[in-house]
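Re: the request from the purification team.
They wanted to know what the chain is likely to look like in 3D before they choose a buffer screen. I agreed to run a prediction and write the result into the notebook, where they can find it.
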Amino acid sequence: MFRPLPLYVGLRYTRAKRRNHFISFISAVSVLGIGLGVAALITVISVMNGFELELRARILGMVAHATVSGVGEDFVQWPHAVEEAKRNPEVTGAAPFVEREVMLQGVRQSGAIIRGVLPEREPEVSEVSGKVVEGEWDSLRPGEFNILLGRELALFAGAEVGDTVMVLAPMARSTPTGLLPVMRRFNVTGIFEAGMQDYDRGYAIVHMTDAQKLLRMGEGVTGVRLKLTDMFRAWDVARDLADRLGGFYRVRDWTREHANFFRAIQTEKVVMFVILSLIVAVAAFNLVSTLVMLVTDKQADIAILRTLGMTPGTIMGTFIVQGVLVGVVGITFGLVLGVVLAENISNVMRFIESTFGFQLMPAEIYYISDLPSDVRPKQIAAIAAIAFLFASIATIYPAWRAARTQPAEALRYE
């Protein structure tokens, strides 16, 4: 069977027993270092992917994939917009909503965003109906002026289920005694918990009819919210709907509403990837010292091979093969360890907590008290490719030094 000479000799050197056991030890350390670096990079990136997915799910549990709203005036033609939206096979749900900033008065005052929804249609575009932890979602009935508060908002305002709160709208009404603020008393019939500070602290939900009466909007709404089969197509689908409706409409999607948030997460992932890649690079370049020592140990063998006619290029290829093989073993070890650790990171965290008797992420402090993980094959392939590149580069100098060995000088003292 034909095998290239550098590959054959390099593999034989790799399998051969070392005269110097210290070189074997350094080789093992290099393999372990590369493996641990790759495993750490896979685990950290997978956990950050998991947090991103978890936060995205919580955000999309409260906001729709896309929103089409009026510009400077109420959206009166919303029934036609909902009907038109549902004709698109990419749209799985459409629902009108009313949204406005108000002042909420309980035991204490607090600013809030009041959202008026149709309880029977809202589950089509959000998951807020499943996040009610006290009271009932079905308590939102037209004309009864019931309200659901975010948990943090309820705590701050000092309101509980069964209490009443005063909602003051940002407008005034004319009376014989002068201008008075528009206000209405609402019954607290439920508390929801979205798992995101922005929504739990700042949102209150009422029936859309009650919101229209409070804000004096008549039959108008703020806009129509859409849920799609592919959330990454939100902007295109919403823009197409606005074009078909005619007139001027404001189009927003979930990526633009939270652009800074997701951009910050993406930036953090890139920075962590670069930092941990440097750890892999440091571990990979330990191969330099390993191969330099190996070249020194094999001076006589190199000289004999040169006298038998092996060219400097072949010598260089031999030691590149050996270094790359060590790198591949380390990368393979790291990939297996990293994937296993990333897939079981929650179990590992629970084991550490039970062993040392403390909580890494207490539920009373953190909204996400577990470590989510999302292993993505493309990222693993990129990590393996980068580690392989580092390992390959690390072999060049020792292999070049071996190729420069002069047979006479190497055999002088043999």
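For the purification team: The mean pLDDT is 82.
Please add any questions underneath this entry.
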